[in-house]
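Priority: medium. Attachment 1 of 2:
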């Protein structure tokens, strides 16, 4: 067995320095990856190792587990994760997990945990067994003395993983914590001190960015050590994490590859440039006093004031002071107010969520931005009774691969990595190995439609047929506007609770949650692009 994560370096904030490898090292590593890929990805037979783990687990079941942790930790740190001490460690952790599960673990789970300890991607088709393999590896690393982060796709998944490990870790005298997005900073900081911390990847990565803003850009190990010894550690009391020692990623295919294009960003709101709330409120009141056809025309390219409308606007604005004397300025303000009142409609053009106006993101990337876009947004926000939102300044950002590669030890588990081997290797330098039975191939037929209307018609008919046959349907879409349109179209299907519409990639979490509920079956995932 290869070594696991090294003992944490004595620095203020341990993490891996991302340095470019030598050309020869990269070529040799690439050759090794190609040979491993050709030779097969299945885990070699490990009957002897599994028998050792099972024998150790049976030996530990007869006595309290907590007192054995210090002894095994000493052996692991002295001898490393060689076969004999690793089998003893995994036997101890298997005994703790088996007592929680009410029976022995699957025979291939110790081998899957060993893959995670070697920094690979372990493929396990059954979701419960993936969670157990992650728990087994996390417990082994915690026994070793390495702080562990178990990264999930959502707060709900992180809470389930923490609940799975809570009893076994407590039996070993170790702690587990779960960090959620809504957790206060003080409580979150205390939770990060646990031996194993479960959290959504983006929640933890955001806390990492906040720590980097506290520490500054250049924080080498030597500087961190000197500051720690001298007591001169500015901002250390406000740090969330203890560093990036080890990360075990659940659903690695989704989090490490699918979500890699969306960076983790910390932003701060700025004041709206050139927008005065009082003036916008006055413009909306003036616009409400104007009559369609007589004072303004609604045209395909926008709203245009008539000459009669311009004169009426000048008369109405006269008592409002000098700021409304300029004809061009008052007509620009009033035209934007008319657009907000008569052309932009809640539910179809925008939605309001928690006091914020959100416009759909489905606009063409090639479309040129309008010069009056900030003014128009402000008019809509005032019309809906919301606070004005300005531009947001990016304070810190990091991509998912760059963040994960900073961990001293990184591993993950997924259902099936066939076809994804090159992605894991090129982005993270990680190999994939099938540890359990192969996942059943999915039967998915793709169809292309010439229009949105025809696609919705076929989707509605398919969903109706499935529900009529006693099934349930989950429709995943990529935009809020499409979700709202499909939700309205699917209202006619009875029973209504048999059909759900969700945004991608949130449907992955919904599918996992439904699979774990007893008796819940989703007969179809319809992914409608939009």
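Attachment 2 of 2:
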């Amino acid at each position: 067995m290869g070594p696991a994560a090294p003992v944490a370096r004595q620095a203020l904030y341990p993490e891996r320095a991302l340095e470019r490898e030598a050309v020869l090292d990269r070529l040799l590593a690439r050759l090794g990856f190609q040979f491993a890929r050709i030779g097969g990805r299945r885990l070699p037979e490990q009957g002897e190792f599994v028998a050792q783990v099972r024998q150790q687990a049976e030996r530990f079941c007869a006595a309290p587990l907590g007192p054995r942790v210090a002894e095994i930790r000493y052996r692991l740190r002295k001898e490393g994760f060689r076969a004999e001490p690793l089998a003893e460690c995994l036997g101890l952790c298997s005994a703790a997990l088996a007592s929680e599960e009410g029976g022995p673990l699957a025979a291939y789970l110790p081998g899957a945990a060993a893959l995670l300890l070697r920094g690979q991607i372990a493929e396990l088709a059954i979701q419960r067994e993936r969670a157990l393999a992650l728990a087994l590896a996390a417990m082994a690393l915690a026994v070793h003395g390495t702080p562990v982060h178990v990264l999930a796709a959502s707060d709900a998944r992180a809470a389930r993983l923490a609940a799975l490990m809570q009893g076994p870790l407590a039996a070993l005298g170790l702690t587990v914590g779960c960090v959620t997005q809504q957790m206060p900073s003080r409580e979150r900081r205390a939770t990060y001190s646990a031996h194993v911390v479960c959290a959504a990847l983006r929640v933890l990565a955001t806390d990492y960015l906040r720590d980097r803003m506290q520490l500054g850009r250049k924080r080498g190990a030597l500087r961190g050590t000197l500051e720690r010894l001298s007591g001169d550690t500015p901002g250390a009391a406000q740090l969330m994490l203890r560093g990036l020692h080890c990360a075990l990623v659940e659903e690695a295919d989704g989090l490490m590859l699918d979500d890699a294009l969306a960076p983790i960003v910390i932003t701060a709101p700025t004041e709206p440039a050139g927008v005065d709330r009082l003036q916008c409120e006055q413009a909306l009141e003036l616009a409400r006093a104007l009559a369609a056809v007589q004072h303004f025309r609604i045209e395909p390219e926008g709203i245009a004031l008539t000459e009669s409308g311009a004169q009426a606007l000048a008369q109405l604005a006269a008592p409002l002071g000098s700021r409304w004397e300029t004809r061009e300025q008052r007509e620009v303000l009033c035209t934007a107010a008319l657009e907000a009142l008569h052309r932009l409609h809640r539910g179809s053009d925008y939605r309001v969520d928690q006091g914020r106006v959100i416009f759909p993101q489905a606009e063409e990337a090639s479309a040129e931005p309008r010069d009056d876009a900030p003014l128009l947004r402000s008019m809509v926000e005032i019309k809906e009774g919301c606070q004005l939102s300005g531009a947001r300044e990016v304070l810190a950002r990091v991509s998912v691969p760059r963040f994960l590669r900073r961990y001293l030890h990184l591993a993950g588990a997924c259902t099936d990595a066939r076809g994804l081997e090159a992605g894991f290797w090129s982005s993270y330098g990680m190999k994939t190995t099938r540890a359990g039975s192969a996942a059943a191939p999915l039967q998915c037929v793709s169809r292309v439609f010439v229009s949105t209307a025809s696609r919705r018609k076929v989707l509605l008919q398919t969903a109706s047929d499935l529900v009529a046959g006693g099934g349930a349907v989950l429709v995943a879409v990529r935009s809020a506007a499409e979700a709202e349109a499909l939700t309205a179209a699917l209202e006619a299907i009875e029973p209504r609770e048999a059909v759900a519409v969700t945004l991608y990639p949130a449907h992955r979490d919904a599918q996992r949650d439904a699979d774990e509920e007893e008796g819940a079956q989703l007969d179809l995932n319809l992914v409608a692009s939009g």
